[in-house]
Each structure stands twice: as C-alpha cells, then as structure tokens.
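Notes from hallway chat w/ T.B., transcribed later so I don't forget. T.B. wanted the structure written out for a chain they're using in a teaching module, and asked if we could keep both sequence and structure tokens in one place. Agreed to drop them here.
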Amino acid sequence: WEMFEDEQLGHLILQGFACSPTLQKALARLEQSCELALQKRAKLFPEIDLNYQEQWQHFSKNGFIRAIIPNEKQVPPGDNQIDLTANFSWEIDFFGKNKNLFAAALDLSCAQAAEAAQAKMLLSVAIAQTYFTIQTLIKQREILRERVTIAQEFALLQLQRETVGLDLIFTVWDAEQNLKLLQEDLTTIDKDLMIATHALNVLIGVGPDEQLLEVWPSANFQSVFSLPCNLAIDLLARRPDVVASGWRIEAAAKQI
C-alpha cells in the first residue's frame, strides 16, 4: 500500500493490524498452537513432579483423641503433618511416537502462522479497498455538487425565459425534474459515503463514532503496478491459505 503514497492509508492499515479483533483472534490461535507444541516437546525429556502438602489439626479438649488417651499431658495441643513427594518418570520413545506428535504440533503451529498471515493480508486489502471507495465517493460528490449548481442555475434561467414568453412551461418542468434527480443522486452518494466510513471503522476495530479520517483520502494511482512476468505454480503455492493446507496435511500424516 506504500506505492499509493498516502501516509494516512499506511497509518490506518497499521492501526488495523493492532486493533482488529479478527487478526487478534488469529494471533491468539497461533500463540496457543505454539504452547501446545511445547507441551508435546516436553514428552521427549524426563519428567519430575514435586508435591508438597501440609495439614494442621487441633485436638479439642473433649475430642476423640483426648478421650481414648488417659494421660492428657501426653497429648499435644495439635498435630502438623507435612507430606513431600517426588516422582521421576521418563518415557523412552523407542518407536518415535512422541517425536512424531511433536513434529505434527510444529506443523500445526506453522499452519496457524500461515493463516495469521492470510488474515493480515485480507485485512490490509479490505482496508485499502474501502479507503479507495471513500476517495472515489468524495470525488463523485464534488462533481455531482457542481452539476447540481449548474442545474439550479439552468432551472432559474428556464423560469426567467418562460416568464418573458421565450419558452413554454414544459421546459421549466424538465429543468426542475433534472435538478431533483441530481439532488437524489447526491443524497445516495452521501449515504454510501457514510456506510463506507462505518465499514472502515469496523475493519480497523474501533467504535462507529470515532473519526479516523483526519484529512480526505489522497491516494496516488499514477504508479505502475509491479507484476511478475509469469505466474508459475511455485508462486501460486506461496499463497498463505495454500501453505496452511500443506502444513495441515503434513501434521495429519505424522499423527497416524
């Protein structure tokens, strides 16, 4: 998007990367898959568990313990029990089960990373397209406002000509009808502009009342789009959704 030479567009896309709930959800799934991969990796190493438990009990004066022991002086006021246990285990991976499960978890993490990249790409494209739609609607509104002004002057001229008897009343009606149609088109563009502005807020992940556009869009479309000479299969295979599908297939194969 930097090729369009609009600093505000770049700022909006970066803000969308930071605030978009859809992208944040994809990044959260990526982080979760990485943690699951670390859990699978832990099975390759020895496991040590340490447990500590402490229990304190007070012996009541009329309780069961003092009732069965004749000499009360031999009974302490309370009892403090401490249990400390340590367990050591190591599952030797003779047939590579844990190693394959760890590799499958890594593949799933790579798939989540590719899907996060896909969400990031789609979000940037959607923000840019909505931004360009707003810029187009603003330009159309400016042109339409000029046409409305011309139509108003023309309707006034036709009314003056009809007043002095140079034209018939039908010419005045035609001019007024044309003016009404242009005013309706202007109202429609204002509505579309408001919808596009709200859509931009939704994509970026901010409230509908927040004013994102500090200035009107001014993207430059004069730059030449750099495209590859040919679209080879290895270039198409770099699409994030295709890459994610490949990683998931490898993960499924390692889980057999």
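Follow-up for T.B.: Residues 80 and 166 are 115 Å apart (CA to CA). Might be a good example for the class.
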